[in-house]
Amino acid sequence: LTYSIVSIIFDFKYEFISHINDYKFNILITIIVGTLILLYHFQRITAENALKAKEMDLVKLNQLKTQAELQALQAKINPHFLYNALNSIVSLIHEDANKAEDMTLKLSKLFRYSINTLEENFSTIKEEVEVLNAYLDIEKVRFGNRINFKIEVADELLGKQIPRFLLQPLVENAFKHGLKDIVANGFLKVSISQIEKNIAILIFDNGYPFPEELVAGYGLQSTYDKLELLYKEGYDLQLINAPEKHIKISIPLI
Prior knowledge:
By secondary structure, the chain is of the alpha+beta class. It folds into 2 domains: 2-70; 75-252, Heat Shock Protein 90 (2-Layer Sandwich), CATH 3.30.565.10.
């Protein structure tokens, strides 16, 4: 078989049968065929490695794209909130300098958290609640006693992780679209609990109900985008008006 292969490739005119006992000729043929086989395998491995490298580059590019999209979502702070917060600080400077200073520090904390220099996609529930409390303290200056706030989360869940900057945009959305015209007895509650292997996040308010044809504002759209990037189809988000108006999110427990 070896002789036949070499004869076809190199068009040798030898009578191979007469060389069967030729030791040197047998070695030469073996070396030639072995070299051809090694060359073939080397070329195939090189081609496979090049293909794998391209595939890895594509995966890496997709990962970088996803990371960039997540960072863009996390870096957003509603400019209207910033404008209102700064106006509130200015008005407080002459009325209550200590309160103005405290509000400035909380605003700084909120922005520092949103910058996310470590490029993390998840934070602990404890961190998210702390940032949410800072945001609510700022909004209390604007809304005064018109709205009551409540956050409920079990202690054993504080160390669990959820998407970074998930809660604040949703609560801000409740202020912007639901509670903005409340003059008294406004109510907003954030509840975080564990249901089997999922974390359930519920955000209640007694403001305007969700319209039937909802046009997602920044808060909701950023949440949809973030959950889609992080969980694909492994999450659930519902907007519910009855019996109590609330947003319900279910994500896998990490």
